Amino acid sequence: MHVENNFVGLLVDGSQGTSNGAHVVIRDSMVSGNAAGGILAHSAPGKAPVFIVVERTSMVNNAGIGILANGPRATIILNRRRHLAQWHRHQRHQQRADHLVR
Length: 102
What we know:
The protein is an alpha/beta fold. The protein contains one helix and nine strands, in the order E-E-E-E-E-E-E-E-E-H. It has one domain (about 1-100). It has one helix at about 85-100; strands at about 1-5, 10-15, 20-25, 30, 35-40, 50-55, 60, 65-70, 75-80. The protein has a three-stranded parallel beta sheet, with no helix packed on it. Strands 2-5-8 form a three-stranded parallel beta sheet, with no helix packed on it. A three-stranded parallel beta sheet has the order 3-6-9, with no helix packed on it.
């Protein structure tokens, strides 16, 4: 699945209902270029829970928030950290650059 160039990539919102909630799995996907965020889970006290599993998914160039679980009944599990690979690569390059500057 490609979720690209939207305002919000994926928003799962349980804050308005009292059902059993939403269970979402995102696998082998790309979430990129979204203006307000990549993957957002939102819940409120006493409202429906939200549960998202993200597996082998790349998160690139999302403005605002990349991944956010907001509320007492919102959960996001990150599995097989492909979506974090770019951050780690950037961090290693920055550490090397910092070492050279010192």
